[in-house]
Amino acid sequence: QVQLVESGGGLVQPGGSLRISCAASGFTFSSAYVGWVRQPPGKGLEWVSDINNGGGTTYYADSLKGRFTISRDNAKNTLYLQMGSLKPGDTALYYCVREMSGAGARDYDLWGQGTQVTVSS
Q1: Residue 27 φ/ψ, nearest 5 degrees
Q2: How is the chain classified by DSSP, letter by letter?
């Protein structure tokens, strides 16, 4: 089956760091544009970051630039999001997504189940 499976979420103290992962299967990951979207408790979806197929082009939400880093390992069919200087406002369910038209297009056609990240003392 074609799927994305997130992992690595958990409880982190404010100011801490965490790396979450997304394992892809059932399609040619190395040709795909992928990214991250999150949903804070009681709020709507928020775009986080995108990356092109080769990993050389990245995009970030303005509020996250300098704190979050997106990367990928095509040999392992895996997408990563390194999160630093975490704030309580970063608490959310983080989804791995695939884009149809290219990095930054945000026309998602595939979603993972999400991994929960909670930032609290």
Answers
A1: -155, 170
A2: --EEEEE--EEE-TT--EEEEEEEESS-GGG-EEEEEEE-TTS--EEEEEE-SSS--EEE-GGGTTTEEEEEEGGGTEEEEEE-S--GGG-EEEEEEEESS-TT---EEEE---EEEEE--
Q: What residues pair up with 12 in beta bridges, in sequence order? A: 119
Rg over alpha carbons for the chain, rounded to the nearest Å, is 13
Contact (Cβ atoms closer than 8 angstroms) between residue 35 and residue 46: no
Q: What is the mean pLDDT of each run of 10 residues along the chain (121 residues)?
A: 97 98 98 97 97 96 95 98 98 97 88 98 94
Contact call for residues 85 and 67 (beta carbons, < 8 A) = yes
